[in-house]
Amino acid sequence: MTVPPLEKTAETSAAPAPQESRLRRIAHLDMDAFFASVELLRYPQLKGLPVVIGGGRRKVDELLLQGPDGTGERERRFIPVEDFPRLKDYVGRGVITTATYPARQFGVGSAMGMMKAAKLCPEAIVLPVDFDEVRRYSRTFKAAILEIAPVMQDRGVDEVYIDFTDVPGGQREGGRVLARLIQKSIFEKTGLTCSIGVAPNRLLAKMASEFNKPNGISIVYEEDLQEKIWPLNVRKVNGIGPKAGEKLARLGIETIGQLAAQDEQWLIGHFGKSTGAWMHRVAWGRDDSPVVTESEPVSMSRETTFDRDLHAVRDRAELSRIFTDLCLRVAGDLQRKGYVARTFGIKLRYDDFKIATRDHSVAFYTADGPTIRKLAGQCLKRVPLDKRLRLLGVRASGLARVEEVPAQGPQRGAARGAREPTPGDSAEPGTTASLF
Length: 436
Ligand code: TTP
Ligand code: MG
Ligand code: MG
Description:
Layout: H1 5-12, E1 26-31, H2 34-42, E2 51-54, H3 59-66, E3 96-99, H4 101-104, H5 114-120, E4 125-127, H6 131-148, E5 152-154, E6 159-163, H7 176-190, E7 194-199, H8 202-208, E8 217-219, H9 225-229, H10 242-250, H11 256-260, H12 264-271, H13 273-283, E9 299-310, H14 316-337, E10 339-350, E11 355-366, H15 369-380, E12 389-401, H16 410-419
Parallel strand pairs: 2-4, 7-8
Antiparallel strand pairs: 1-6, 1-7, 2-3, 5-6, 9-12, 10-11, 10-12
The chain binds thymidine-5'-triphosphate and magnesium ion (MG) (2 copies).
C-alpha cells in the first residue's frame, strides 16, 4: 500500500503531529446484516446458514418459542435447526428486511418479496424482527464507540459517522488502527461485527464502508478517487436516489467518473443550480460537512412549579387542566423530535418539598396526547394526594425513534390506550386519582 506523504510525515516525526499536518479522517461504520446478526446472537445454531428477517411475527414464531408441548412460553430453550420456519413455507406479501451473508449468496436481499426470495433460497430460515433487541444492541454498539471516539454522529439504527482526525490512532495507517480497535471493542461488547470505511470526508467514507463488507475495513485517500470511487455507479452516492439515478442514466451517465467528466454548467442545466453544483462536487469527492455530535435522548419531560401550592381537591379543575397541558406538551415534544415512548410517569413535589414519582409501562409505543394523558393519569392513583402540591411533572421514557418501531397508527395506540381504565372512570370514593 502506498502511504501518502502527509501520512508519512505524521507517522515518522517524533513529536505529535502539528494540527495542520493531520489529514482529515472521517469514518463511516455500518453493522453487518444488523437485524439478522442480532437474531443469530439468540440462536447461535443458525450461524453460517441462510437466514432472512421479514414479515410480521406469525403464529409459527410464537409456537417456536413455546416448545413442542405448548408450554414454557418464551422460556429460553434450545431449538434444533430443523424446527425453524423456512422461506419455502412462507405464504404472504411480506418483504425481506435483511438477510445474512450466506442468504445473500442466493441473491436474496432487502426489499425483495418473501415469496420471490423463496424461489431463490427455499431452505432459508425466516425470523421476525425483534425491535426491542435491535434497539438495545444499537445503543450498546454506539456507546462502545463513544468510549473510544467522542465525535460521533448517529445516522440510524445501525450506522454512524465518526471523526477520527484527532483521536489517538485515527491517523495511523490512514485510520485502520483505530478502526480495528473500534471493531474489536464492539465485538467484545455485543458479539456483532461491523464494517468501517475511513476517508477524507463523510461522502467517501459512506461509500468506503461497503467495500469490504462484512467485518471489513477500507481506507480511502483523496488520491484514490479515480481508482476506487469513479468506477462506482452514481447510485452509490448518498443523496442520488432512484429518480436522479434514472435521469442520469437517460443522459448516458452511469458511473461517478462519468459524472465527474461532465461540465458543471451542463449538470446545472439539467438538475438545477443547487443539485447540479452538488453533483459536480460529490463526483470530485468533495464534502466539507462536519460530523455533528448529537446524543439520543433517554426521556422527555415537562414540569411546572405552581405560583401557589395547589390542593388536589380544592384546586382540582386547575390541576387537571395543568396536567392535561403537560401531557400534551410531552406528546408534542415526542412528535416534533420523531420519537415514541412506552413508559409514562409523573413527578409531584409536595409543599414539604418531598418528591414522589411513579411510572407505568405499556406494551405499545405512542406519542399520542390523549393516550399519554390516560397512561400518566394512572400513575396518579398510586401517589398520596392529601398534601398540597408545589410542582407537577410528566415524563416519557422508554423512547424509540418512530421509524424504528413496528408500524402502529395512532388509532391503534389510542385504541389500546383507551382500553385501559381512565382516571376519570374510577370514581370510587377515596381514590385520589379521580380528583384529576
Ligand atoms: P443496512 O445497514 O442497510 O443493512 P444490513 O445491516 O442488514 O446489512 P449490511 O451488512 O449490508 O449493512 O440496514 C440496517 C438494518 O436496517 C437492517 O438490518 C434492517 C433494517 N432495514 C429495514 O428495516 N428496511 C430496509 O429497507 C433496509 C435496507 C434495512
Ligand atoms: Mg448494516
Ligand atoms: Mg446501515
